[in-house]
Amino acid sequence: MTYRPMMGEYVIYYRGKVVGGIYDDRFLVKPTKSSKMLLPDAPLEIPYEGAKPMLMVEDGSPMFMRDLLVSIWDDLYGKKAPDKGYHR
C-alpha cells in the first residue's frame, strides 16, 4: 500500500492502483461488491465536489484493512491487471 498527496488530500494505492483516499480527515474507499459486503453499514460520502460517492471506513483493525484493500483491488483490477510481481 502506498499513498500520494494530491491537492491537500491523500490518494491510497494498493498494488499500484487507486482503492481509496483520505479526504477531509475521512478514510473513503471505492464501493465495490466486496467492500459493500465488508462494510454493510458504511455511509456513502462524497470525497470532493463532482466526485462519485465512496464508502466511509470508520474503524478497522490492520487485518481488516488489509482484507478490505485486497478485496477492492481484486474486484476492480484482479482479472484485468497483469501480475507485476505483487503479492498479497
Instruction: Give the count of structural domains.
Output: 1
Class by SSE composition: alpha+beta
From N to C, what is the helix and strand string?
A: EEEEHEEH
The gross shape turns out to be: globular
**What portion of residues is helical?**
25-40%
Number of helices: 2
For the sheet with most strands, the description reads: 6 strands, antiparallel
Low-pLDDT residue spans? none
**How many strand units?**
6
Work out the radius of gyration: 13 Å
Q: How far apart are the termini?
A: 10 Å
Name the average pLDDT: 89
**How are the strands of the largest sheet arranged?**
1-2-3-4-6-5
Beta-strand content? 25-35%
List keywords for this structure.
single chain, 88 residues, alpha+beta, six-stranded antiparallel β-sheet, 2 helices, globular
Structural summary, described in words:
There is one protein chain. The chain has helices spanning 33-38, 62-77, and strands at 2-6, 9-14, 17-23, 26-29, 44-45, 54-57. The chain has 88 residues and is an alpha+beta fold. Strands 1-2-3-4-6-5 form a 6-stranded antiparallel sheet. A hairpin with a 2-residue loop joins strand 2 (9-14) and strand 3 (17-23). The mean pLDDT is 89.
Characterize this entry briefly:
The protein has 88 residues and is of the alpha+beta class.
Produce the secondary structure layout.
Blueprint: E1 2-6, E2 9-14, E3 17-23, E4 26-29, H1 33-38, E5 44-45, E6 54-57, H2 62-77
